[in-house]
């Protein structure tokens, strides 16, 4: 598809040129959006291909997304390790103080914690040689989302990248691993709004 440019064009010509430019812009934007979605899908696929996963932030006080994530991983056949320095057991399994306390090195770590704690945990990942990290943010991966509720720390994200750690800076495994109706709906909505875009 092309367009005709005339030095002595009328309004129709300019409208036609504008239409072609806008179509090209929309086409490029569509490619970019699809690439970004493909990027998070590939990262999720890579994370879920790991076998041993530490889940940081499980709670015995209330049901949380972290608790659900732990149970989903466990139910799907993963070897899971609960991490919370305040409790000794979770869901009938040992619960560890930190990543360094786990008797086997995890392949991957899912974090639902304060961003300051996320930074400490990523440093532990660096020290232990763990190469896959997923930081929770219910609303997606777009930077700046979920202020006050996110586990994402931008400095921790940069630390991951600087040390060869594959990082998913937001979203939630519950939206991808055997998702219930609510999590499946959220994943679709966040995609629609562009909240799952990756830089």
Q: How would you describe this structure to a colleague?
A:
It is globular, with a radius of gyration of 21 Å. The protein has a single domain, classed as Rossmann fold (3-Layer(aba) Sandwich), CATH 3.40.50. It is built from five helices and seven strands; from the N terminus they run H-E-H-E-E-E-E-H-E-H-E-H. The two termini are 31 Å apart. Strand 1 (52-56), helix 2 (65-75) and strand 2 (79-83) form a beta-alpha-beta unit. A seven-stranded mixed sheet has the order 3-4-2-1-5-6-7, sandwiched between helices. It has 199 residues and is of the alpha/beta class.
Task: Write a concise keyword list for the protein shown above.
199 residues, alpha/beta, Rossmann fold, seven-stranded mixed beta sheet, 5 helices, 7 strands, 42% helix, 14% strand, disordered N terminus
Give the helix tally. Answer: 5
Instruction: Find the CATH topology.
Output: Rossmann fold
Helix content: 40-55%
Distance between the termini: 31 Å
- Can you list the strand order of the major beta sheet? 3-4-2-1-5-6-7
- H/E order of the elements? HEHEEEEHEHEH
Any idea of the CATH class?
Answer: Alpha Beta
The named CATH superfamily: NAD(P)-binding Rossmann-like Domain
In short:
The protein is an alpha/beta fold. It is 42% helix and 14% strand.
SSE diagram, text form:
Layout: H1 11-48, E1 52-56, H2 65-75, E2 79-83, E3 89-90, E4 93-96, E5 108-111, H3 115-128, E6 132-135, H4 154-162, E7 166-169, H5 181-192
Parallel strand pairs: 1-2, 1-5, 2-4, 5-6, 6-7
Antiparallel strand pairs: 3-4
